[in-house]
Design brief:
Order of helices and strands: HEEEEEEEEEEEEEEEEEEEEEEEEEE
Number of strands: 26
Shape: globular
Low-confidence stretches: none
Largest sheet: 21 strands, antiparallel
Oligomer: single chain
Number of helices: 1
Distance between the termini: 50 Å
């Protein structure tokens, strides 16, 4: 549920792309990534695009890590397909250090592809371990989009010092106005400059016998566009208190700034005008021992929001029976009162899984989102063999609900059977 004007990041779930996924990760996760595998086989509106064929080679030869990927998709609706190529190399060095490079390309294929229908991104990255506690990391990237010649860069530099009991992090990230990784992920289009700093401490008090650990921490992040206008500022001040019983609670405040360049619709019929909004928000998070058979908790946020007020409540409940049955029930409710109107959003989710054995399981997910008035469900049966291979049967059903008749409409259903097997060709 997106109550902002920026892109949401959804992690990859498909096993084919998850294996050795860390090798292909270059950039800042969730904000500016040179390669994002969900761009392959999934359209801009979430529709499935058939993958005709593909192959991946990844592995290690001594201190050198190598990854190659090529996929061909078919997109009949657009009149052309796409071929995706990714090449990655990373050299491990002494002292937690490494250096690497990546090349990512999309090339339209077929009679309807047309001229100059392609995109290329390439980057170099590395990290330098300083002693046992220090680490400096970063990357520099550029994209090549037909018809664009300037401001296609991105780079990041981050320093971290991890000691007992204090961890300090400082970073800077910049993307150019025309940085366009079509096979990557970019949370904010049009370019931005980001500054971030974090201080995190772990204290284990001896006198207060009821507390296992106290974690006071603070984080500040700010974004400016290339015109010097601050689009986001977020200062989080918090302290987490962990009891020896396994229960935990945290109390914090958020000092926020939202700079809206262009008015946007946050909810049907409710607009947020352009301007700068400075607010404060209180936060409380409580949770019981997650190792128990029954556990739960809740989070409450209350404070200013785009010139108005918001109260967000998120209770959660987990129930497990031994190692076979697990379930998680959660609900997120936002009560929002803005100058342009008031509204409420609800997101309810239930996850259930049962394992007949370590290799045989069933899983279910049911979710309701009243922002778009939609129900969705996913059920999966798995029979694992080795390295996450085996037989999988998946049924997915999602549909919108008509407000007048409360009848389901526009159903989207799929039934998939997948069989995968791993073999050693050298034997």
């Amino acid at each position: 549920m997106n109550l902002d004007r920026f892109n949401l990041f959804f992690p990859e779930k498909r096993p084919f792309f998850l294996e050795n996924a860390g090798l292909f990760a270059v950039g800042n996760s969730g904000e500016a990534e040179v390669f994002f595998s969900r761009r392959i086989g999934i359209g801009e509106d979430g529709e499935e695009i058939p993958i005709l064929a593909g192959a991946r080679l990844s592995g290690r030869v001594g201190p050198t890590n190598i990854g190659l990927l090529n996929m061909q998709t078919d997109d009949a609706a657009a009149g052309f397909g796409n071929n995706f190529t990714v090449a990655r190399v990373r050299q491990d060095l002494r002292g937690r250090s490494n250096i690497g490079a990546i090349f990512v390309a999309r090339q339209a294929t077929g009679d309807g592809a047309g001229a100059d229908n392609h995109n290329v991104a390439f980057a170099a990255d590395g990290r330098w371990g300083i002693g046992r506690t220090g680490l400096v990391s970063g990357f520099v990237a550029r994209t090549n989009t037909p018809g664009i010649t300037r401001d296609q860069h991105a780079f990041q530099l981050q320093a971290r010092n991890d000691t007992e009991p204090l961890t300090l992090t400082l970073g800077y990230l910049e993307t150019g106005r025309n940085f366009n990784p079509e096979v990557g992920f970019l949370s904010r289009v049009g370019g931005f400059r980001k500054v971030e700093a974090t201080a995190f401490s772990r204290l284990r008090p001896r006198r207060w016998s009821k507390f296992q650990e106290i974690r006071p921490h603070s984080n500040y992040r700010a974004y400016w566009n290339h015109d010097g206008f601050q689009e986001t500022g977020h200062w989080h001040i918090d302290s987490s208190w962990e009891l020896k019983s396994g229960a935990e609670f945290s109390t914090g405040i958020n000092l926020t700034r939202e700079g809206v360049v262009e008015a946007f619709e946050i909810y049907p019929g409710v607009d947020v005008p352009a301007g700068t909004y400075d607010h404060q928000e209180a936060q409380l998070n409580v949770g019981s021992n997650e190792g128990a058979a029954v556990s739960g908790g809740f989070q409450v946020n209350a404070g200013g929001f785009f010139g108005g007020d918001r109260v967000s409540l998120s209770p959660r409940l987990r129930v497990r029976v031994g190692d076979t049955f697990n379930s998680e029930w959660s609900w997120t409710r936002n009560n929002i009162d803005l100058p342009g109107g008031s509204f409420t959003t609800n997101l309810a989710r239930a996850r259930v899984s049962y394992s007949f054995s370590p290799r045989l399981f069933v899983q279910g997910l049911v979710q309701y989102n009243d922002r778009v008035n939609a129900w969705s469900s996913n059920f999966r049966f798995g029979w694992l063999q080795q390295a996450n291979t085996g037989i999988f049967i998946v049924y997915t059903d999602s549909h919108l609900i008509e407000e007048d008749s409360l009848r389901p409409t526009r159903p989207d259903r799929s039934f998939i059977v997948k069989i995968s097997r791993m073999f050693d060709a050298l034997r």
